[in-house]
Amino acid sequence: MVAVLATAAVAGGVAVMAAPAEEYPAADGWVREPAASKSALRAAGDPSRAAVSAELAAAAAAAGLAKGPVRPSDGGGTADCIADWLGDGPADEARLAALETALKERGWQVMARRRGPVPAVALISGSWRLELHNGGLLNTATLVARRSTEPCDEAFRREEATRGPRG
Question: Which CA distances in Å does 79 have to 61, 76, 96, 162?
Answer without folding.
Answer: 24, 6, 26, 16
